[in-house]
Amino acid sequence: MIRPGAAWGGAVPAGTPVREVTGDDAALAAAAVPGVVLRLGTGSTAELARALGLARPGAGPGTTVVDCDLIDLAPPAPDAADAAPIAAVAANAAANAVVLGIPPDALRAWHRRRPVTVTVDGRALFAGPATTVVVANGQFLRGADLVPRGHPGDGRLEVQVYGLAPGERGPMRRRLGGGDHVPHPRIAQGQGRRIDVRWARPAVLEVDGRRRDRVAGLVARVRPGALRVLV
After folding, report:
1. Does 1 map to a domain?
2. Of the residues 69, 84, 102, which one is the last residue of a structural domain?
3. How far is Cα of residue 17 from the mean position of the Cα atoms in its chain?
4. Which of 24, 206, 210, 211 has its CA 20 to 30 A from that of 74?
């Protein structure tokens, strides 16, 4: 985990195995093994690479290893107030971003807001109608600068909750590319080590760009330094 003012990364320790990974962010998360350094192959589509500077023209894996975080996912513990069981989370880890509800780049005027509660490290962040909750370790999603302050090695997760009115969604999408959609009075933001999300009704779940089953809630926890990547 990087600390304020500290250098991030160092040389690969002698004898450390290095494994090449191609594919997307989900493939990167699945390949994370303690003690192994991952090198992104030329065919990789992982968007975490852009946050690491590996998506620049001419950039390629070098000789520095950086310790990135992972997002561990689990269903929330059921309680007496639950009218129905909460579906299990289909994938238990993510490298870049998790989206519950309508992804911000797909959000349109006709999408309905539904009640959701979000807590960060046990503190209430949001309770009310929203279309979308984003939990991010990285910064980019489908090329958009979705979480401008996201840092994959700071030991914290970023969360955004979109309660935008229908007429505000088009202008928001147009600003996504440069990260100018935030701050916004109806996009709640926070950061922490544990994010708890509860929807009144099951919402679509996207994990590292892959569509999963609908869930009524989940718990996202940061796993610091679990993903070692060569840059």
Report:
1. no
2. 69
3. 27
4. 24
Please name the residues in contact with 77: beta carbons below 8 A apart, sequence gap of 6 or more: none
Compute the Cα dihedral for 110, 157, 117, 78 and give only its sign: positive
Residues near 62 by Cβ (< 8 Å), separated by ≥ 6? 230, 231
Least confident of 20-34, 70-84, 122-136: 70-84
DSSP structure class, residue 89: P
Q: How many domains does the chain have?
A: 2
Q: Which residue range(s) make up the domain with 198?
A: 72-223
Structure token pair of residue 56:
């620049």
**pLDDT tens-place string over residues 177-205:** 999 999 999 999 999 999 999 999 999 99
SS3 100: strand
CATH code, domain carrying 77:
2.60.200.40
Q: Which residues contact 135 (CB under 8 A, 6 or more apart)?
A: 71, 97, 98, 99, 100, 157, 158, 159, 195, 197, 220
Among 90, 120, 89, CA closest to 192: 120
Residues 94 and 152: beta-carbon distance below 8 Å: no
**pLDDT tens string 41-91:** 888 899 998 888 875 544 555 778 899 999 999 988 765 444 444 555 555
- Are residues 85 and 36 part of one domain? no
> Is it true that the peptide bond before 129 is cis, omega within 30 degrees of 0?
no
